[in-house]
Amino acid sequence: MRSFIFFLGVVIFFFFLSSIDACDRCLHHSKAAYFSSASTLSSGACSYGSMATTFFAGHIAAAIPSIYKDGAGCGACFQVRCKNPTLCSTKGTTVMVTDLNKNNQTDLVLSSRAFRAMAKPILGADKALLKQGLVDIEYKRVICDYGNKKMNVRVEESSQKPNYLAIKLLYQGGQTEVVAIDIAQVGSSHWSYMTRSHGAVWVTDKVPTGALQFRFVVTGGYDGKIVWSEKVLPVNWETGKIYDAGVQITDIAQEGCDPCENHIWK
Hints:
This is Expansin-like A1. The chain is an alpha+beta fold. It is 15% helix and 34% strand.
């Protein structure tokens, strides 16, 4: 009942907000630094581990708390470009959030590979950019595009049958966030809620028997919906294994910008 009331509240909340005017995504201005070692980001707060360096060719970043959102922002994608016209391209690069940035001088700390990718495609520009160390940037949230790849569910090693399950969502597309997860036996209408343990990891100590299905509350900006994944984990699910969720989240959320015309990517 508690879970149902929460779901209903989310739907009603976004129904009332749906008529509010909004931009696509706001353009933000800040500074960016970089980590010389990608392992710093792969061992970050989102708990992606060594998998982090495989996302977007290692173009990953740590983000400030307002982006990290206690873990809800894990996996979010941002287009970032630096504002040095001599060294930087107008395209910039796309990064995925894998860690929490506690440095109040920068909104984002990029992997060195992502930092270099903001440079113009001319000889020596990337090395010259690295020497800057800290650069002015502008960035905005963009769609995480995994092509035809479905969202995956990874069963974490901390899971212990039959009562404790810890999962992590991988390859979530779109431009929104999963803010709640419910779990049930396949074919059952008796749902129990999972809680966010840390970063991208969700847990429950009330694991139903049999094959398992999930439903996700997906929100972002002024958009919200519930996504059902009808059969994800088999009866004999195993720790460390990755399972196809059978769905992909492709929604494009909006974000209020004031005024909108000042947030156009030029």
